[in-house]
Amino acid sequence: MKPQVFRSKVAWLLGWAWMLFAAWNVWDLTAHGRLPSALIAGAVLGVITALVFVMALRPAVVAEEGGVRVRNVFRNAYIPWNGVDDVSVTNAIMIASGDTTVRCWAPQATARERVRAAGRAAKAARSANKAERAAAEAVGARTHADWVADQLTEMSRSRRESSSGETGVTWSPSALAAVAAALALVVAAFALS
User: Fold this and answer.
1) How far is CA 47 from the centre of its chain?
2) How much is the pLDDT for 118?
3) Under DSSP, is residue 48 helix (H, G, I), strand (E, B) or coil?
4) Lower CB density within 10 Å: C or N end of the chain?
5) Phi, psi of 37, rounded to the nearest 5 degrees
6) Whose CA is closest to 191, among 31, 42, 36, 29?
7) Predicted pLDDT at 116
8) Residue 112, pLDDT score
9) How far apart are the C-alpha atoms of 111 and 50, rounded to whole Å?
10) What residues have CB less than 8 Å from 96, skipping those under 6 apart?
């Protein structure tokens, strides 16, 4: 079974747009830049790109066959389906497993998104159309994060038998490497300028 990935689509698209912009600028700096200003610009570009990677592209909730993997900014968490005790939403999705509670960086439910969803539900409830009223009652004032939490809850119930692994939280090597590379660029820029 293919893993199902839940993330902020806007952050993901903006993150990849930044990556294209950064790649074009790296090419321009190497082709036309002059030291040390090109190195300083490259260091600034590297720091921003590392931040975009860890804050926009990395965060996701991945529903796998044996459990749910949460990729946050610097940490990875894995919870097998039979270890999921509760999935709730405040401004973020919270997955409880025994003494461990994992807060998911993405997708999040902002106050603005909650207000918009409540407005849509109220508007549809006032509608004369029975189909729109039924849809408003079914969906209510739900956000994308609420929908993802419901999906995870359902998966944890239906996939308990196929659970594998143990609950664990670890540092992300890719996020740490991206930050280390950006810091190395900054050190090199200061050393050579």
Assistant:
1) 19
2) 75
3) helix
4) N
5) -65, -35
6) 36
7) 80
8) 81
9) 28
10) 84, 85, 86, 87, 88
Strand pairing partners for 60?
A: 71
Strand order in the sheet with 60-63: 4-6, 60-63, 67-71, 75-80, 168-171
What is the Cα–Cα distance from 53 to 75, expressed in whole angstroms?
13
Element (H, E) at 60: strand 60-63
DSSP 3: P
Amino acid 91: pLDDT = 87
- Ranges of residues in the chain with a pLDDT under 50 are none
Q: What is the pLDDT of residue 127?
A: 66
What percentage of the chain reaches a pLDDT higher than 90? 69
Q: Between the CA of residue 172 and those of 6, 54, 66, 117, 126, what are the distances in Å?
A: 18, 10, 20, 34, 48
pLDDT per position as a tens digit, 28-65: 999 998 988 999 999 999 999 999 999 999 999 999 99
Question: Which DSSP string corresponds to 80-131?
Answer: EGGG--EEEESSEEEEEETTEEEEEEEEE--HHHHHHHHHHHHHHHH-S-HH
Instruction: Give the position of tokens 């689509």.
Output: 9
Q: Quick one: pLDDT at residue 30?
A: 93
Whole-number Å distance between alpha carbons of 128 and 2: 42
CA pair distance 177, 182, nearest whole angstrom: 9
Q: List helix spans (H) across 127-162.
A: 130-139, 144-158
